[in-house]
Structures are given as structure tokens and as C-alpha cells.
Amino acid sequence: MENFADITFPEFAPATVWLVGAGPGDPKLLTLFAYHALQQANVIVHDALVDPAILALAAPHAKLEAMGKRGGQATSAKQKDITLRLIELARAGHKVLRLKGGDPFVFGRGAEEALPILNANIEVRIIPGISAGIAGSAYAGIPVSDGQSNQVISFVTGHDTSGQVPAVDWQALAKSSPVIVFYMPMKHVDKIQAELLKAGRQADEPVCVVSKATTPEQQTCDTTLGSCVKDLSKTNIKAPALFIIGPTVALRQQLTECF
Ligand code: SAH
Fold first, then answer.
1. Do residues 26 and 119 both lie within one domain?
2. Is the CB of residue 29 below 6 angstroms from any atom belonging to ligand 1?
3. Do residues 108 and 186 share a domain?
4. Overall pTM surpassing 0.85 (yes/no)
5. Measured from the CB, is residue 205 less than 6 Å from ligand 1?
6. What is the residue range of 227's domain?
7. I need a labelling partner for 247 at 20 to 30 A (CA). Which of 6, 59, 126, 163 fits?
């Protein structure tokens, strides 16, 4: 880190766990703290969303373990197994880096991992990352807020921990939040569309679905609330994706060139 000599980073002590956000994909969006952690760790347990270009920044001696939950896939590791593995590695004296996509606390189950580790008397440090909802929207040219159009932004998960559409108050959400960014929307786009229309949002409101945002495979689908299910079915857009609705989506036409 010789170029950043004035910034001091804490020492990554053996037998501790650092829970680190890797950002949405583009390695340039890593924080300096995350980069420091990658250089210091000797075991990196990463989830499925972390870009290989980021893992390539690990120190040469670091051991990589893929252990990620991914939208309820049958093969994805159970949360409990991940936590037990982190405890086991820390107890063996490793500097354990748990690397998660985006920010660990934004729909990332960060606390669910940190608390049992703390309860096992192992030191945990949390290093925030840039969440996909913010940087992913931006890379598609969509500001999540704009002074002219919204004073509220909502980040909503498209499914809860059991895979169902979450029990949010759709009326309140639709009324109070001009811009809504859905994480994990792909399984339930039809239900999200139906709930928002029922709650009074207009069929001609602009919607953009952005997949693999900030990576070279970024794809977007420009549509409206009324047509989103039909329009998406004509694309091959897949998770990880964001579903963004609201007036700022229209700014994309001018801002998309900025990234
Ligand atoms: N902790 C993460 C979110 C984990 S939930 C964060 O803060 O970003 C996983 C969901 O995040 C995905 O289903 C998708 O909705 C979103 N996501 C993560 N990376 C993404 C990317 N590069 N492009 C679009 N959506 C992404």
C-alpha cells in the first residue's frame, strides 16, 4: 500500500475474522480497507457473487474457499455451515477473511454470520462495501436520488429468507418512495409488478432491470411497470440483477455515458 502511506490500517491478527464487503463487481470499486484485507488474509472464504478479478488481488499465499449462498440454490452452503467453517478456521489460527458481495449488511446476512462468531469469543471486524443497489444503479446511469424528484429511496429484497415475496406494506412503500430498488427481484417480477400496480403505481412508470452491474457483462432492460414482465421474458437477463422503478430511471438516457 505504498501509495497510501498516510493511511494506517489495523493489523489483521491471527485467529480473527474480518467480514468484508467486496462491492458489486468492478474491482475498482473495492475500498482501500478491503484491498488491505485481501493482501493480509491467509484464508479467504468468499461467496458466489464475488468477481474473480477481485479474488485475484489476494496475496499469493492466501487459500481461497468458495462458500456462498445464492438465491436458495440447492447447492449453496447453508448459513450455519458457513459460520461453523469461519469459526473452525479462526480457531486454527488463521487470518480469516469472509468476503461478501456489495456490503455485508445490505441483504447480506452479515449480522447472522458475525454474531455466532462473536459468541464463540472470536474477534470480528466488519468492513463495509459499496452496495449493488447504489453503484449498480449508478453504472446504469440511474441516480438513486435526485433533488427534483425524490426525498426517499427504498431498498427492498425481492424475496425473504424462505424465498417468498416479502411481507412489506406495499401501499406505504408505493406511496412514500418514488424510487424503489429491488434486490433479488428475478424470481418474483410478476408479483412485484402486480403489488405495485395494485398499490397505485402507474403502468407507464419507467423501470430498468440491470444485471451483472459494474462488470463487463452488465446488461440492462429498459421497460415500464406495465410491460416489465413481458419485456424481460424477451431478454436473457439473469440474476444477479436489480429492478429499479421511479422517476430517476428516466435520467439514464443522459447519464449512461458517464460510466
Ligand atoms: N450484500 C449485497 C447484496 C446481496 S443480495 C450488496 O450489498 O450489494 C444479492 C443481490 O444483490 C442480487 O440478487 C442482486 O439483486 C444484487 N446484486 C449484487 N451484485 C449485483 C450486480 N453486480 N449487479 C446487479 N445486482 C447485483
1. yes
2. no
3. no
4. yes
5. no
6. 132-258
7. 163
